[in-house]
Write a structure and sequence with these properties.
Severin; six-stranded mixed β-sheet; 6 strands
């Protein structure tokens, strides 16, 4: 599995100060996040929640959460990952399987598809790790 993270996603919100939390919440509200659960794509838009908080609200266990392919749509980018912003072959396979549906569901004309996220500074917009393909 390609690791790209120095933060513990399951404890992430607990270490943020107010300024950092505000920056993270602004980013969260700009994106449409998704999780793939039982071959279904669940979406949440315009929310301050993290994926982990959303999964907790859906009563998804930590073990299942860490195994789920999830990601977000923002600025004609669809970024797939799991666990601590990592990707493996399953995440890549899911990107190829679900990207067209996500484009349709989110009313996009085109999108660049990525796997994984390069973890950066809290509050900055983290960049995708590996570009897989583009859909026009």
């Amino acid at each position: 599995m390609k690791k790209s993270n120095k933060y513990d996603i399951n404890n992430f919100e607990n270490v943020l100060d107010l300024k950092q939390r505000n920056k993270v919440e602004i980013f969260h509200q700009k994106r449409t996040m998704f999780m793939i659960l039982n071959n279904d794509i669940l979406y949440l838009s315009n929310s301050k929640l993290s994926h982990y908080q959303w999964a907790q609200a859906l009563n998804i266990s930590l073990e299942i959460f860490n195994s789920l392919t999830r990601g977000f749509v923002l600025n004609n980018k669809i970024i797939f990952y799991k666990s601590n912003f990592e990707y493996d072959q399953k995440v890549i396979d899911d990107a190829y399987k679900y990207a067209f549906r996500i484009i349709r569901d989110c009313n996009l004309d085109f999108a660049d598809i990525f796997a994984g996220v390069k973890v950066g500074k809290i509050g900055d917009e983290w960049q995708p790790n590996k570009k897989l393909f583009t859909i026009h």
